[in-house]
Amino acid sequence: MSKQKAPLTKRITRLCRMACWLFRTGRDLRNVKSDDAAGREQVLIRLGSGALAAMDIRLEIGAPPRMLQGTGALVAANHISWLDIFAISAVYPSSFIAKKEISGWPILGKMGRNAGTVFINRDSRRDIEPAKQAVNDALRHGLNVSFFPEARTSLGIDVLPFKAALFQAAIDSNVPIQSIALRYYDHTGQRTTTASYAGKTNLFRSLWRIVSMPGLCIRIDFDAPLMPEQYPGADRFQLKEISENFVRSKVMTDSPVAHTHTDTSPQQTNPIKF
Q: How many CB atoms within 10 Å of residue 21?
C-alpha cells in the first residue's frame, strides 16, 4: 500500500473544487420538486459524478447495471466510506438509508434530506419498522432505495455479516434486489483502506486523507437483479444470503486478506456504526 501523498497544491485545488460542488449541488437539490422523480434522478447522478470528479476519483464499472423499467429496486451494497454514496449515485441514482447522526452534518446533512435520504437510529429497534415502511413507500412509487446491510463501515478488504431486516421490503413490495460490490484502489492499482471511514475518525479528517491521495479508483460490480418471486417461499434471510455471497465473492477476489483469514467479525475490521 503506497504512502505517497499528493502535492499540497493539488490537495487545496481538490478542496476548492469540492466547495464549488457543494454550492452547485445544494442549489440543484433545493430546486428539485418533491414529485419530480426524473429531475431528482438527474440531480443525484450529477451529485455523485461531480463529487468524484472534484476529488479526481476514477469510477470503474465491471458491467453496466440492468435497470428494470417501471419499478424501483432495493439496492444492497457493502459499506466502506462516505464516498460509497457518491459512487452509487453516479451510476444507480437512488435514495439512501443512513444513520441519524448524518442528518446533523454540516451541509451534507441538509443535502441528504433534500435527496430523500431516510435517516434511522441504528441503536434502536423501534426505528426499524418506520424505516421499512418508508422504504416500502418509496419502492412502490418506483424509486430506487439503497442501503448498507452490514450496518457499519469496514476497511473494505473484507465484508461484515449482512443484516436481513430491510430485505423484507423487497418481498413486501415485490421489487428486485440489486446487489453491488464496492472496492477501492490506490494510484498503483493496489487495494487500499485509506478511504475507509472505519475506526476513530471524523468527516473532515477523512476528507483530508482522501484528497491527499495521489489517485483513487472505485470499482463497482453489479449482480443481476434478484427477483424475490424467482425464489417462492424464500424469506429475507435467504435473500440476504444470496446478496451477501455475491458481494463477498467480488470483494475477496483480490483482497490482501483473502488468503490470510476468513473471519468477518467486526473486531477484525475495526468498523464503526454508520
A: 19
